[in-house]
């Protein structure tokens, strides 16, 4: 009888471990292995936003953005100390970074902000917010960085809290 109880306990533990492992779903980052695949991801995102009645603007660098809320006052310029909230996502919506309050000097020589983030901030003023799709050549390019693969466009939702 003791052997039977031990057998059931072992089976229960194995079953629990199996359910736990199979229940964990790995999130796949929508990566692209080339600039062409990246362009397809970006075009799909832009079409989706336009089809849902968003006004998507673009810059010469390939930054695409939607101004969600127009702020008041002057826009962010180089040398400003900016406090903001942001969330960084992959195009599938997977969050890779977020901050409820982040303060930095805009375009300071010692800052290591990605160029697309810096460019996007300049589209906003105090109280304003927007969504920015940054192509990889304005982010982490062909090499990627940490959890961000090469050729990965990044989405940032940004709200400017204060400008000094």
Description of the molecule:
This protein is α+β, with helices and mostly antiparallel strands. It has a single domain (30-163), classed as Chitinase A, domain 3 (Roll). It is 28% helix and 30% strand. It is built from 3 helices and 8 strands, in the order H-H-E-E-E-E-E-H-E-E-E. The chain has helices at 2-23, 35-51, 115-121, and strands at 57-58, 64-69, 72-75, 81-89, 95-105, 125-126, 129-134, 154-163. A 6-stranded antiparallel β-sheet has the order 1-2-7-8-4-5, with helices on one face. It has a two-stranded antiparallel ribbon with strand order 3-6. A hairpin with a 5-residue loop joins strand 1 and strand 2. It is globular, with a radius of gyration of 22 Å. The termini are far apart.
Provide a brief overview of the structure.
This protein has 164 residues and is an alpha+beta fold. The protein has helices at 2-23, 35-51, 115-121; strands at residues 57-58, 64-69, 72-75, 81-89, 95-105, 125-126, 129-134, 154-163.
End-to-end CA span: 76 Å
Count of domains: 1
Work out the radius of gyration: 22 Å
The major sheet is characterized as: 6 strands, antiparallel
The portion of residues forming beta strands comes to 25-35%
Structural class: alpha+beta
Which fold name fills CATH's third level, the topology? Answer: Chitinase A, domain 3
Q: What's the helical proportion of residues?
A: 25-40%
Helix count, DSSP H or I runs of 4 or more residues: 3
